[in-house]
User: What shape does this take?
Amino acid sequence: MKKILLKALYALGFVSSINFINAQCSLDQVGAVNYSVTSQFSDLAVAPNGLLYSFAYNSGVGKFFLHSIATPSSSWTPVASINASTTVKPVVQVSKTGKVYVVLKDDAAGQVGKVFYESAGTFIQLGASFSGGNKVSDLSIAFNSLGEEYVAYTDVTNGNKSTVKKWDGTSWISVGSGIVSIGSGYYNSLIIDKTDSPVLAFQDLNAGNKISVYSFDGTSWNLSTSVGSSPSNAKLKLGQNGDYYLGYTEDTNNAIVQKYDGLTWNPLGLPVTNLSPNPNTFDLELDPNDLPYFVALNNTSFYAVAFKYTGVPTWSNVIGGNISSITSVNVNVAVDFKGNPYFSYIDQPSNYGINVKTITSPISISSQPVSVSRCNGQSGSFSVGTVGGVPTSYQWQTLGSGTYTNSSAPYTNVTNAVCAFTANTSMDQNQVRCVVNVGCKNIISNTPILTVITPSSNLVPTNPTCFGSCNGMITSTPSGGTGPYSFTWTPGGASTQNLSGACSGTYSLTLQI
Assistant: This one.
């Protein structure tokens, strides 16, 4: 039996021992209030272009609906729908190419699992049911670097075992044996790591109800480690540098987030207390700078609350209070490529209406860093400007091997608004960005490119006509970079592109852009 602690939802007013940290941010409604009602279950995802998607089951009409919204001030737009019913939270996920996928349990078809993708306003099912005729729960989906689809689920018919399958272009095939857990497994959360290997976290009843993390080595599933104590709502995320982030709630009303560096799990700060351990009341996401956010319900009034990690040992309530104002269920969080977090919840007393909120800082980037070209050995800088307040910190980062890391030498002043450097050829085509921390969120700058140029010139001499004459010439053809060029001839100091009236001797040209 699935080990969970269900507590009644009732409003008593908010009482908590959490120390709220007032951040310089405001809470903004995304689209209309309760834009979709009788929505028992929902999920949230952001596309690479920043388009926000909400996918929900509407029990009033027995359909799943996908909506999208471009900006917080615009309206939610219906995209596509599916005729089906469910008692399990569905999943929406967007691939790196912007393709929108949904995963659901279809009660009307025998409680089997199905994957659909959206195309031109229509949902197209990806093959047959990935569970065959077996009943499913606890769904997850992930994509490898080729965009290939993997699903994880609890196979209810087969002893509630956690199972992973892959779409091979024709059918759903088992990954390894397909079965990951030895006994029952719940709260499945699937990622594809930096080596393109599937990794699955789940509540493992065979491991004393801890969360077990298994990785697939191409042949079999191997246990990495087990953590937690009577957890629920397991969420596994992949950091930019390949680290794993695992978040969950426990029956002790704590929310815990841990980071795995390949060897050990290390808690991020202290547990956040007085949170609901009920299913679907916790979600975790990372921003582009691997800043973790989570959304949960408090365990008294069951209002939605959101936190970000601010460093040992602190988790900070992002707005110093609640996200929702009445009893809520089914929370989700998503973060766009600019670092903007979005939190969704379903208001139970308001006919199960879906609401989405975001946090907006009065601080914004007023001037973005721009691409620069510098000659080898020449100094330069990138700068970012902000308005509306005083940022908490700056951190310049450089993209390498697909991962942004904090910039280091030969970059200097990397924690200031202006990052300086002396160009060398190893820095050519570096992509850089600035992460501006404003207390409740990170603002990510544009990504300019540093081009390092080594200009050169082809020199063609014309010798003097006779000894002692000074009618020689040297013609130069510069290359590397874009002119105008400046020329300095030695000896003599002439500044023309071609040197004329040259006597017999040795000459050198200094070329600059």
Observations:
- The chain has no helices and 44 strands.
- Residues 212 and 226 are 4 Å apart (CA to CA).
- The two ends are 72 Å apart (CA to CA).
- The first strand starts at residue 26 and ends at 29.
